[in-house]
Amino acid sequence: MAKRSSLAIRIVEGKNLPAKDITGSSDPYCIVKIDDEDIIRTATVWKTLSPFWGEEYKVHLPPTFHSVSFYVMDEDALSRDDVIGKVCVTRDMLTAHPKGYSGWLNLTEIDPDEEVQGEIHLQIEILGGATARKLCCRVFEARDLARKDRNGASDPFVRVRYNGKTQESSVIKKSCYPRWNETFQFDLDESATEKLCIEVWDWDFVSRNDFLGKVVFNIQGLQTVQQEEGWFRLRPDKSKARVDEDNLGSLQLQVRLRDETVLPCSYYQPLVQVLCQEVKAGPREGKVHLITLIDETTTAECRQEVAINLVKLFLGQGLAKEFLDLLFKLELDKTDEPNTLFRSNSLASKSMESFLKVVGMQYLHNVLGPTVNRVFDEKKYVELDPCKVEMKDVGCSGLHRIQTESEVIQQSTQYLQSCLTELLITIAKSVKTCPPTIRATFRQLFKRVAEHFPENKHKNVKFIAVTSFLCLRFFSPAIMSPKLFHLREKHADARTSRTLLLLAKAIQTVGNMDTVASRAKESWLIPLEPTIQQGISQMKEFITKLIDIEEKEEVEQPKAQTLIVKEGPLFIHKSKGKGPLLSSFKKLYFSLTSEALAFAKTPNSKKSSFITLSNIRAAEKVEEKSFGSSHVMQIIYADEAGRLETAYLQCKCVNELNQWLSALRKVCVNNAEMLCSYHPGVFKGDKWSCCHQKEKTGVGCDKTRHGVMLQEWNDPLDPDLESQLIFRHLFGVRDLMREKYLELLTENTENILLSQSEGMALLLMTPWGPRHE
């Protein structure tokens, strides 16, 4: 049995933010912190007080998760970014909303006394006899304290208060991982109601000391147990009244916490077998399909989630193509009008959409990447709609004139034709790089639709069925919102966004294969019609080649798909020897596979084995002060002799840092001998920069964070978790499924063919898996 916690986050938008720039606007972005650790940075939305992000993330969490905080920042090119405000969502708040919290939350001002983090190791005990007893407080160490000084550290000391008396520890300079090992004693007052308060402060020579957090103990409770020892989370000081902060604006969020108890795979086998048997049997006339019942009893708000869980489960079983084929047939059986085919948000549509994202994201990047990057880099002004054309000055100084509307449209047409032609050529050449599993699935879809609509007047329908997914639900959304498909790190500005939108509409028109309908709806696309007509012919030829796939190619695909987990350029510094560590990093191209982390000088160079995955012991962040640079991670691994070595890798941003850490943690999740602690600093001279320990091989001063990972489309499949999620859903809708089954049984008594065991399972909805909520 295992606990799996995850957090689904959607940062929607902000409104009424205060202006931070002299232009009367702001350039807002969000930083998301999980228990005070930076995990996500959204894109910056330029020059607005009402930004829209629409970014979604899913984070795997350790069971000790406490809160998630959203900091709205204003990006500045010349100075430090300004903090606009924050929103904190606690675990208790999320537990009170089991279906997730969704709504607007007011931003609050950053209060230094509430910006605390970290833990302190204490032992509290009562000593002595019945008459003269002492209250003894031993302060051992603290970890991950807030960084209050410009050097990226703090100078912490402890202040212990009890019954009107105060004692203080020594100050540990430049450390967020201090070790005191000091003891404080007070005379125990049996009649006093005073609590024991242990506060941590950052000592400052010039200004006032900064509060770092506190822990409070109830002495009456302590007298019962006599002694209490452990790591205690530092709490903020909330004694001050909050100032009215309505003028900071608000943030719209959707946050959902899910805690799953996942049992061993044997518990889920009956459920998985029932689902697989149904899919293997395929569509059968007169049968009440379990998949049909799932489709008709699943609400629109959770259909996407159910679809992705089913897709991942059948991918793990090697039955994704058969599952989607069954959905195609069931959908076709309900459809007589080809114009509405796969246009609804049915389980078939959602499952196919999810399937393409899980299996085809790398293919999408290869096809769309060059054209999308071109549009971002060239930043051309493009507009075809006469109602939206802006007149621009052209020509050199002194000879400039205003462009006419027809000139703008002509230049825009030429540019869009160039981009569209380039993209269509890339798509046409991508047959062999398209994953065979996708090709095989499209072949089944093409075949099913051709059989259902055999008339010559519907000769295009089988092609449109493919493009309705490939173009309308995959390529086009990615072109319109490249940030959401990880094609770009930042959102497009207004000019680039308009160009991408027009290009996406052109691809949609090609996918619809009906320029007459498009012309009636948006007549200003007419200038692109020659290119679109040519594109339709190219798309048909491409689909014909795409579905021509050998069975052996389809079988071999899973191996190739799991080969590369993540790749990209990073800066490396490798720690060796006893001397001072220099902050010099060399840029190399890294590739993380299922076997090793490899590197080379360029993407096309021959890669040398760098670290074997089975030898990795930890993948963690490094303190900013260690190298004077942000976004550095460390990989602790065992060399051939079994000695622990550390490699330091620098990323370009917090998102890339966490993506690499997540990828490394996922591929090493089953490694033996993973470390429970590590040093977030570096060993400089004769001591660690974090905790000042002088023993290089000593126990780390901070706990490792193996459980914190970002979910990506290319994550390794987790069959037990997917089975549990499907079981939970079926268990929740069992009454609706029973009612729907009886309804269908009544309507088709003479035609339904259902075995007694299947009928009883559906009728009673006896859980096939473990019976727990």
Describe the structure.
- This protein is of the alpha+beta class and 773 residues long.
- The protein has 5 domains: 2-109 and 248-258, Sandwich (Immunoglobulin-like); 119-233, Immunoglobulin-like; 263-334 and 720-773, no CATH class; 361-548, GTPase Activation - p120GAP, domain 1; 563-710, PH-domain like (Roll).
- 35% of the residues lie in helices and 26% in strands.
- The chain is built from 19 helices and 30 strands.
- Strands 22-21-20-19-25-24-23 form a 7-stranded antiparallel β-sheet, covered by helices on one side. The chain has a 5-stranded antiparallel β-sheet with strand order 7-16-1-4-30. A 4-stranded antiparallel β-sheet has the order 3-2-5-6.
- A hairpin with a 7-residue loop joins strand 21 (596-600) and strand 22.
- The longest helix has 32 residues, at 347-378.
- The two termini are 14 Å apart.
- Mean pLDDT is 85; it is low at 394-399, 556-562, 576-582, 750-757 and 759-773.
- Pfam families: BTK, C2, PH, RasGAP.
- Keywords: GTPase activation, Metal-binding, Repeat, Zinc, Zinc-finger.
- Residues 1-105, 116-232 form the C2 domain.
- This is Ras GTPase-activating protein 4-like.
- InterPro entries: C2_dom (IPR000008), C2_domain_sf (IPR035892), PH-like_dom_sf (IPR011993), PH_domain (IPR001849), Ras_GTPase (IPR039360), RasGAP_CS (IPR023152), RasGAP_dom (IPR001936), Rho_GTPase_activation_prot (IPR008936).
